[in-house]
Amino acid sequence: MQNLTVLGTGVLGSQIIFQAAYSGKTVVAYDISDEILAKLPERWEYLKPLYLRDLPDATPEKLDAAVARIRATSDLADALSDADIVIEAVPERLDIKRDTWAKVSAVAPEKTIFCTNSSTLLPSDIVDATDRPSKFLALHFANEVWRNNTGEVMAQAQTDPAVFEQVAGFAEEIGMVAIRVKKEQPGYVLNSLLVPLLSAAAALWVKGVADIETIDLTWRKATGAPLGPFQIFDVVGMVTPYNLNKDSADPIQREFAERIKKDYIDTGRLGRGVGKGFYDYA
């Protein structure tokens, strides 16, 4: 599968685009407006020094070649016209994902395999919005995909096993370690482990038990982890935890969403990708 289309050019979508292009794939970046797509060159310039820092084989020439393999469009039919595989990375809301896949199904070639990068939703929640259940499954990436390089592959009941293996092979071709998830699980393996940590950290902060820096320091020192939970939030970006928590049944998690909306999203502190979130990265 050489031709990839990625739907959504946010923090993780843009990373998937760049990593696939760096690995030699031809990539089309789709988003809903040309204004959003106009910001992508700035995103590539942000990612390039991170690849040079973290990957021994990265060179300026290889990074420029990766950018040359990326084409951007806000025309969905154009974006999908020759796609072997499409990865959806739109906001983490079931209504948006289902609407996106219904539109994709109307214009995608018969050959195209459909993958959602949803962090928490199950592929079985979305599959009936598509026209090809045997070719629909999840391929989930960790943030900072060039170094946290896991690709979690998770089928739903109607996924063709051969398609599952094709997608696992594609993940390996773009530099991922393919994690074959044996049954549907909200959050896959990674987020099943990570989300409880982040939720606990959010609750400690909202309840005033400890400040952000102390919570992060405690986790790093006591476990040897390179990042504390609020540093992880900054890597993920503020929009995803806001969407996941704003309608939570837990009032503490709803308050956390309200705080990050008011004090961070509304003030442009969207996370490490823009240089500031819970911490400043200038």
From TrEMBL:
GO molecular function per UniProt: NAD+ binding; oxidoreductase activity, acting on the CH-OH group of donors, NAD or NADP as acceptor
Domain of life: Bacteria
Pathway where this protein functions: Lipid metabolism; butanoate metabolism
GO biological process assignments: fatty acid metabolic process
Keywords recorded for this protein, A-Z: Oxidoreductase
Any one Pfam family match given in the protein's UniProt record, by short name: 3HCDH_N
Family: Belongs to the 3-hydroxyacyl-CoA dehydrogenase family.
Entry protein name: 3-hydroxybutyryl-CoA dehydrogenase
Organism: Microbacterium sediminis
Upper taxonomic lineage: Bacteria, Bacillati, Actinomycetota, Actinomycetes, Micrococcales
